[in-house]
């Protein structure tokens, strides 16, 4: 059963195209991720799906309800956590949660079981103002507020941006627990490593979806050999690899540069000889398996 269905959605802001011919569906009880950089169109799409923004054309339904015609019903059935912390900074943790429970005609006590695992971690600070919380605690409070009315679908727009690695890991463990409880989750992130934590992902760039599939199927279909290369001068390494005649693609990834060759003709020996002649020292060249970032960059090159 499809919880979310989107067909040919377009959205523009004057001359800027935010979304172009977006089509996808989300199955009930899955974690569906949108992976892409800032400005890819993720926030515009989420605001349309939670009925805060009207599309220029196309159609979208959530739980079988039209996002334009049935917006009042949809708002009672979904939870939304925007990318920017949007709770009341001057209210305490408990006051924020009570407020959101009240506007949905429920109470903290009635649905405490839904948020217990999350809220219990910040409950000792329930009298602290929201504006004084750490990034990870703000994240947990925002998720608790989005869940307090027992939504069937949860929309999370870049929920882990600016949060430390430990809190990011904890957050995704919470999402898996919510998924196992039957809640459908649609989440966006600029972090490519979070793609593997989703059941399916949509790679999105410049308002267009490049590919939709399970993370392991996306990487297994990459079809190119990749080298991870490092030297004492990464900036020079990027430039020199870009100018190498056989170069197909090259981009930085952490402490390494990922490199693919035209017609998949990769020779470590020839590359090492070429780079050594250009003065590179402490060279390290390794064959690696592709990750989501490699696939995303390749699809971007094909689309450009």
Features:
304 residues, alpha/beta, Rossmann fold, Alpha-Beta Plaits, 2 domains, six-stranded mixed beta sheet, four-stranded antiparallel beta sheet, 10 helices, 29% strand, globular
Enumerate how many helices there are, as a single number. Answer: 10
| CATH topology-level fold name of the largest domain | Rossmann fold
Distance between the termini: 35 Å
Q: N-to-C SSE series?
A: EEEHEEHEHHHEHEEEHEHEEHEH
Helix content: 25-40%
Biggest sheet overview:
6 strands, mixed
Strand content: 25-35%
Strand order of the largest sheet: 6-7-8-3-9-10
Structural write-up:
The strands form 3 sheets. The chain has a 6-stranded mixed beta sheet with strand order 6-7-8-3-9-10, with helices on both faces. The chain is globular and about 70 Å long. With 304 residues, the protein is of the alpha/beta class. It has 10 helices and 14 strands. Helix content is 33%, strand content 29%. It folds into 2 domains: 218 residues, Rossmann fold, CATH 3.40.50; 81 residues, Alpha-Beta Plaits (2-Layer Sandwich). The model has no long low-confidence stretch (mean pLDDT 92). Strand 7, helix 6 and strand 8 form a beta-alpha-beta unit.
């Amino acid at each position: 059963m499809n919880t979310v269905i989107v067909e040919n959605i377009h959205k523009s802001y004057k001359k800027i195209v935010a979304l172009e011919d977006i089509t996808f569906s989300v199955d009930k009880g899955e974690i569906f991720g949108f992976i892409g950089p800032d400005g890819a169109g993720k926030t515009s799409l989420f605001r349309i799906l939670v009925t805060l923004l009207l599309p220029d054309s196309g159609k979208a339904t959530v739980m079988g309800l039209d996002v334009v015609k049935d917006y009042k019903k949809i708002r009672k059935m979904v939870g939304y956590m925007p990318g920017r912390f949007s709770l009341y900074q001057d209210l305490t943790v408990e006051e924020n949660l009570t407020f959101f429970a009240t506007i949905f005609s429920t109470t903290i006590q009635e649905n405490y079981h839904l948020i217990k695992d999350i809220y219990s971690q910040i409950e000792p600070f329930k009298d602290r103002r929201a504006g004084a919380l750490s990034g990870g605690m703000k994240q947990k409070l925002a998720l608790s507020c989005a869940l307090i009315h027992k939504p069937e679908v949860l929309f999370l727009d870049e929920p882990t941006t600016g949060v430390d690695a430990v809190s990011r890991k904890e957050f995704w463990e919470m999402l898996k627990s919510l998924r196992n409880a039957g809640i459908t989750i649609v989440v966006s992130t600029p972090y490519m490593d979070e793609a593997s934590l989703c059941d399916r992902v949509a790679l999105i760039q410049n308002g267009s979806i490049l590919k939709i599939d399970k993370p392991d199927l996306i990487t297994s279909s990459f079809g190119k050999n990749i080298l991870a290369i490092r030297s004492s001068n990464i900036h020079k390494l990027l430039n020199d690899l870009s100018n190498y005649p056989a170069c197909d693609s090259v981009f930085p990834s952490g402490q390494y540069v990922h490199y693919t060759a035209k017609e998949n003709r990769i020779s470590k020996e020839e590359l090492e000889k070429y780079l050594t002649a250009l003065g590179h020292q402490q060279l390290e060249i390794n064959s690696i398996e592709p990750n989501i970032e490699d696939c995303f960059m390749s699809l971007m090159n094909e689309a450009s």
